[in-house]
Amino acid sequence: MIRYLLGRVAFGALILLTLSMFVFFLFFVAPGDPARMVAGDKATETQLIQIRTNLGLDRPIHEQYLSFLGKAVTGDLGFSYRNQQPVAKLIFNRLPATLSLVVGGVLVWLAVGIPIGIMSARHPGAVRDRLGQGFILIGLSFPTFVLGMMSLYLFYFLPRQSGFMLFPAGGFKPFLPNPAIWAWHLILPWTTLALTTAAVYARLTRGQMLEVMGEDYIRTARAKGLSERKVVWKHGMRATLTPLATQLGADIALLLGGAIVIEQVYGLQGVGALAVQAVANQDRPIIIGVVLLGGLFIVVANIIVDIAYVLLDPRVR
Amino acid sequence: QDAQPGGTLRILGTEDLDHFDPTSAALVTTNNFLRAVSRQLISYEASTDETVRITPKGDLATEVPQPTDDGLTYTFKLRQGAQWNAPSGARQITSADLERGFKRMCNPALGSAALTYYSSLVAGMAEFCDGFSKVEPTVEAMKAYIEGNDIIGIETPDDETVVIKLTQRAGDFIYMLSLATSAPAPIEVLDYLPDGPDYRSNFIASGPYTPGAYTPDSSLQLVRNPAWTADSDPLRKAYVDQIDITFGLTVDAIMQQLQSGDGDMTYDVTIPPAILSMLTAQGDEKLMTVSSGNTNFIFINTVSGNNNGALKDLKVRQALNYAVDKAAIVQQMGGPSIAKPVNGIFGLGVLGYHEFDLYPSPDAKGDPEKAKALLAEAGFPNGITLKMPFRNKGNEPAVAQTIQASMAKAGITLELTPVAPADYYSKFMTNPVNTQEGTWDIAPVGWTPDWAGGSARSVFQPQFSYDGTHQTYNYTDYNNDKANELGQQAINATTPEEVGALWAQVDELVMADAPVVPLIANLIVLYHGAAVQNFQPYSIGVQGDWTNVWLQQ
Amino acid sequence: MAVLEARHLSVDIPTEDGVIHAVRDVSFALEAGELFGIAGESGSGKSVLTQAILGLLPNAIVTGDVLFEGRNLLGLKPAELQSIRGSRIGMIFQDPMSSLHPYYTVGSQITEMIHAHEKVEKTVARRRAIDLLARVGISEADRRFDSFPHQFSGGMRQRVMIAMALILNPPLVIADEPTTALDVTVQAQIVALLDEMRRERGTTVVMITHDLGLLSSIADHVMVMYAGRRMELGPSSALFAAPAHPYTAGLLASSPANYEAGAELVPIPGRPPSLLDTPKGCVFAPRCASALPRCTTEAPPLRVFSDGLQSLCWLEGPPADAAASVAGIAKAPAADEIVVKVEGVRLTYGGGSLFNPGAGFEVLKGIDLELHRGETLGLVGESGCGKSTFARVLAGLIPMTHGKVSLLGRDLGSLDGRAWQAMRREVQLVFQNPFGALNPRRRVGAIIGDPYRIHSLASGTERKREVQRLMELVGLNPEHYNRFPAEFSGGQRQRIGIARALALNPSLIIYDEPVSALDVSIQAQVLNLMRSLQRDLDLTYLFISHDLAVVRHVCDRIAVMQAGQIVELADAETLYRAPQHPYTRTLLAASVTTPPRHPAAGRTLVSSNVVEVA
Amino acid sequence: MSTQAAIPVIQRGSLALTLRRLGRDPAIIAALVFIVLVVLFALSAPWISALTGHSAIEQYRDTGLSEMGLPVAPNAEFLFGTDHLGRDVLVRLAYGAQVSLTVGVLAAVVAALIGITVGMVAGYFGGWVDTVLSRAMDLVMSVPFLLCALALVSVFGPSLSLSIGVIVFFSWTTMGRVIRGQMMSLRRQEFVEASRSLGAGPLSIMFIDILPNLSVPIIVYTTMMIPGSIVFEATLSFLGMGIVPPAPSWGGMLADAAGNSLYLVASWLVLIPGLALLFTTLAFNILGDGLRDALDPRGRPVRRKPK
Ligand SMILES: Nc1ncnc2c1ncn2[C@@H]1O[C@H](COP(=O)(O)OP(=O)(O)OP(=O)(O)O)[C@@H](O)[C@H]1O
Ligand SMILES: Nc1ncnc2c1ncn2[C@@H]1O[C@H](COP(=O)(O)OP(=O)(O)OP(=O)(O)O)[C@@H](O)[C@H]1O
Ligand SMILES: [Mg+2]
Ligand SMILES: [Mg+2]
């Protein structure tokens, strides 16, 4: 178990290493002169040279990479080209919004997706199943930003046109002074983020549940005289859980992508918005930092899922 | 209704400020920030009345002085009680601080974008700058130079008196003093690189507010400056306790939050035509238009060798002028109530603006035939292909595509390149190497005069005059000696009629060379949240004055 | 009084392809304390029948009456049914591997049953479960209580299932093929355990199986089903000694156990009908050796005989005993030529890999064997002892770790790639699973033609001709050249596999349990085919099986394998008569065969009435 | 046994049965019809352009825009209204369909090919080959793809081929994993052993024996990857990283509508391309689901044979 875990962590580290190389070298080949970005409009040639030395841009690429890596390990991701702020700090400042969005989104989608999947699976072919499947297909098909725009139009704009305020149009409010306001502002983003993914879960739950409900041990459970509720929610659910947990790990990548779009649509100042802005500004240290953070997020999530998998499935223990 | 002090004013914006340091601030929007945290010698009252708005008032100066010595000498008395929020405790702003502010403008590492206005006027300033340019760009060396050298034309007989001597008469000098770039500077700032991180974190405010928590690209908080007293400041009421500025939002989000009450005012947003027409239709009283003298035009790259240097040919540039459908752009911007076609370099409200059109077309819709003919004459019967970058933000893509569409009719193919807004000027247009290498052929740009009213000089000088050294915003080193001469006369002239007539001539001279294609003059539409009261535009910030609004609780 | 009585029970299952009439008009009654056997080939509706009784088939339409303790189970509300399930009627399912929930400990799965029906303390329930686990033969039950099913072997899991079914001491236990998935030795233990429990607690047991031998030794009454019908029902002794229904007789006749070694088996021809349509006459008529003309047009009557047998058949007298009349076929004695010589073959799985060096698992522990041309060598042994592995080594599919195999005198270890390729033609495999061994996405012609394709021996029409010749040889219709494997029955698929193996005229054909997935009636067809091919083509067979009766029937010599070693090797008859190794003896003891048939003395027809089939 | 009665046998996966299953579900028929219509619509873009007399990039400022520069709602001249530049939404939608479908199908097919190859190789050979390839897949799946896509596009500048490349790069792993999993179990099947024992080489086994057995996941997952690719492209365009204006793409049209809050006053600018996008992906998803159910009945609520 410990060995297994160490193996996963080592592989996670390898992934991050490769990822860092990928982005680092990607931006090395990118056109544009970072020194000029740092220096601003009226930089003289001497100033540019000075800045290049300061940033280490005159050193060979592998040296630059190694020094970057060395610092990155300690959490130092360098400084933004645009405002010379530490990248780690810039990202850190954006975390509350993104985490609020993502964590809430996950909760909403699990709370929506799994029950729908179960409902659908329990009555295969029935109207409820058809509805559930309809939800799944539509959810799967909705591009996040279209859904976002449409919900803004329907739940913010139209009510406001008729003079009342159903939901705010977005904007991030910190959790602390008033959690209610925080939540109220996040309801639309959460649902938008969650609906598309909830569909994935509903589908997965449904398929898994259908499969599980056909298993022999479910028949055994029924033959024991357990109530149908217990059969479904205890025996069925327990066996469905493992693949769901596994999927959750794989969806973290999806989630980050969704967060970028949602932050854009609802004007949330999260890491995703920072990334989009950094891309627009060609602020490479930030882009590298955000990509690495995203990678770290995914890697950690996957390790957690691996652990969960081991805990959930006695057969691999 | 009586003003209610207190509360937090929430301001929403897309982009972070360019600079904290008043000396180097260049963006119009930054003036609003500087209005709140710093004081100038001369400033304006924020007002909905256009004339009041552009009448200079004493800020640090007790009053607006009349020049003496045939208009060459200005003597200012500094207001007592105006203080620095210095680390050692509140301290009176002195005449030495004022002179130091002027000196810092010369800093070659990060000086003032408006430097040439001053250095060409203030006696001895050009020499001071020359000396400064040879100083090594280290904090110590720069500090030593500033402390050890003098600008001859600025005298400080005592702590509260400043005498400024000019090399020539200038009707607009008083206006120039309203710019934050010439604001006084406390001695402590010399210990930091101009506008460096240390400078920012140790910002010494003189206005009613001082920067608090700052998250670059994300948010900036302004809190009350304990060193500021209301009775020392006739222009700022400073009703609100705190100002929270949020950056990094999209225009949509800003407009939505503004309307939903999650924000009070905008920072750098042009209201999209769609919202505008909606608000207009609803008769929203919070809507307000102000003129800032802003114009949009296309700069033409006459420097690069692209297309065998086609754009160096006047005929081709004239063809471009004929080709553009300005009416379409007006329509794109939101219609005639928001924008107006212009044919010269000056915008509405600038003394010198007049109606003329050297490249006329019916209803300003462009004359593709004429353009084609000119192109053919110039040796491009089959049209020409030009590279045009544009800012990937707000209305710009739409305007770019509109230009593209109208140029296409004249056989001019535009290759559009979307550019990140932040990079457009500072990293793209203003990099002379890019211009020379021809990474762009034509580029839509905008210009707002640096100050209000008699500000033609601040349009002409930085963009259309060249004295041998490259100027940031004269991308192609355009020069016309005759225009320069007339401009000089206009600067020295005293009556508005004379000034206006001279600048009008300059305008026509420049347009005859067609270094640019003027597009439209904009009115700026302002909007604010429902809680905001006493929304009075501040003329050089082109936005409601943060220091004078109050919030309905 | 009958504990359970079914009257005119029918089960229809709607599916995509139409309604499956899985059970038709089945009636029976169980006396308290008896062991009631239900026999029949795969798909005859045994499981459906029992599951329908307990309402475990949610989609099925069940008609008729099922009386249990005076209540009609079919009319009960879900809650009432739930209270009966488990507490009054215990169920043991066929596959112990999949019938326990993989994520819960075995103990908790048993106590769950207690808690579902009784209000007891946790510790009490636990105590009871542990006691019973110990009783069913789980050693250290205390400790194993918290184990998960995957930590148990198949036999142990089946014990857990039994404990679970018995924990509430239900008056009725239904065991649906409780031993099919298990090794013969384990099978015997489980059956003995069930029997013991029954005797001890007076439980009535319904035992479903297709193993007639097993039933004959333990059942009090037996019901034989075919295509959803109850073909015959009666006291076990009478039924096995002298079956009244031709189907029962045919089943018994198909079993090799009832033959002299080497005798031609008498299979039931054809294959079971589709359950989608209901024939007018008797369902068995198309395959019936004693069919009368009316059989195909009129539904058969229910004949009740004096010795308690009831049979659904027009036949009034006993059906002919086909087995007795068939004589053994002479077979050429094996030649002296040695086809394969195996010396000290060892094989270790997973050893020396990058990740766990050294931690290998030795499957074959030094095997020596010789096969002579024309002979059939049987290889028997428990599941997992390495039979298939050995087959694979011989076929060159896995390299051995040590040892030497020479084929036709050439050492396989010394061959280069090209020679190997040629050598592959000499050894062919026929696999156990008639479904897995044929590529479901390729046509039969292409499958049988593969050897020609791979060895570039024939192509185009020539290949097709060859393939059709082979198809004819193994008794397949050559016109079915373009069909997919799914369009054939299990027995036919095995024929396809055999045809493919024959294509290259191999020196050795290895059969890896070729009939264990087939029903007895089909099994006999395939075994006959194998034998006739061997006789005609002078083939050498290595025949792997765990069914001693089958092995004895087809093999000249038998090797008994245990844990990767051959513990005994002898002539078939010698081994049978005088097993030397204790393991061989255990194996022999565990396999039960039906008693020999003898004419039904003094049986008379009591009544006969035509039953209307709804 | 030539006397055997001709008994109808259940042929799972036979074409007729599949078609019957597909044909029975009206949703699938509707989806198929819709897809065909969208393809026709895309193909007929030049023709629509000719018919309306409007080009995709020309601006109809007099009739297509209000004086304030606002787009006009659907009317007789502009059936789907105009966009913020007075361009005909109908014509742009048609040309945009070309982009969306091209990107969707091309990216899905290329990604599928890569995924199939890698998955087959990894699954067949196992061992270190599998370790390396699986880890590579894990790696790609651990990349925050939208972020990386943005970074890539920002470096190389937006273009259609880059969009496709980026989509392919981040989506082949889905197919790769599925195929690898299937391959792992197929390779253990006895029919593969049978081929091997006959002396068939890896290539022959992979392509002749195994590939046909992978047709179901290949068809199903390729179909299901199409909507994903379409949305991916639209998302890139929406974030301003798609194809360069004025060329129309559905994502770009939506971005235009969103960009200036335009959709609040001109809801058709969101509704038309948004619904086109939604229905197209929906149709492909329904088709994919339907194909899976029809080709691979395991996922369906058909009761298993208790065995
Ligand atoms: N849930 C179901 N849906 C559809 N058909 C079913 C279902 N369960 C069983 N069947 C069909 O009903 C028939 C009888 O099946 P059943 O399982 O009762 O056979 P069995 O006699 O138990 O066979 P085996 O010995 O293989 O267990 C078979 O043809 C089977 O395919
Ligand atoms: N590829 C493999 N890797 C590791 N162990 C294996 C492998 N294949 C088989 N084994 C193990 O080797 C042992 C022998 O397996 P084998 O399949 O030869 O048994 P068998 O006698 O044919 O059993 P059965 O009667 O169940 O077919 C078993 O314990 C099995 O788990
Ligand atoms: Mg069964
Ligand atoms: Mg085996």
UniProtKB/TrEMBL annotation, chain A:
Transmembrane region(s): 9-30, 99-122, 134-158, 181-204, 286-312
GO cellular component: a single term: plasma membrane
Keywords tagged on the record: Cell membrane, Membrane, Transmembrane, Transmembrane helix, Transport
Coiled coil: none
Record's keyword annotation contains Transmembrane helix: yes
Gene Ontology BP term (one): transmembrane transport
Similarity comment: family membership: Belongs to the binding-protein-dependent transport system permease family.
Pfam families per UniProt: BPD_transp_1, BPD_transp_1_N
Keyword Transmembrane: yes
Membrane topology: Multi-pass membrane protein
Domain spans labelled ABC transmembrane type-1: 95-309
InterPro entries in the cross-refs: BPD_transp_1_N (IPR045621), MetI-like (IPR000515), MetI-like_sf (IPR035906)
Protein's recorded name: ABC transporter permease
Compartment(s): Cell membrane
TrEMBL record, chain C:
GO BP terms, alphabetized: peptide transport; transmembrane transport
UniProt cross-references to Pfam families, sorted A to Z: ABC_tran, oligo_HPY
Entry-linked SUPFAM superfamilies: P-loop containing nucleoside triphosphate hydrolases
Subcellular location(s) per record: Cell inner membrane
Keywords: ATP-binding, Nucleotide-binding, Transport
Organism: Devosia insulae DS-56
GO cellular component, one term: plasma membrane
Record's protein name: ABC transporter ATP-binding protein
Membrane topology: Peripheral membrane protein
GO molecular function ontology, one term from the record: ATP binding
Main localization (coarse): membrane
Occurrences of domain ABC transporter (ranges): 4-252, 340-588
ATP-binding listed as a keyword: yes
Protein family membership: Belongs to the ABC transporter superfamily.
UniProtKB/TrEMBL annotation, chain D:
InterPro entries, per database record: BP-dependent_transpt_permease, MetI-like, MetI-like_sf, OppC_N
Recorded topology in the membrane: Multi-pass membrane protein
Residues annotated as transmembrane: 27-48, 99-125, 218-243, 263-288
Chief place of localization: membrane
Keyword match Phosphoprotein: no
Subcellular location: Cell membrane
Listed SUPFAM superfamilies: MetI-like (SSF161098)
Biological-process GO terms, alphabetical: peptide transport; protein transport; transmembrane transport
ABC transmembrane type-1 domain ranges (all copies): 97-288
PROSITE patterns in the cross-refs: ABC_TM1 (PS50928)
Pfam families found in the cross-reference section: BPD_transp_1, OppC_N
Protein name as it appears in the record: ABC transporter permease
A GO CC annotation given for this chain: plasma membrane
Family to which the UniProt record says this protein belongs: Belongs to the binding-protein-dependent transport system permease family.
This protein's UniProt keywords: Cell membrane, Membrane, Peptide transport, Protein transport, Transmembrane, Transmembrane helix, Transport
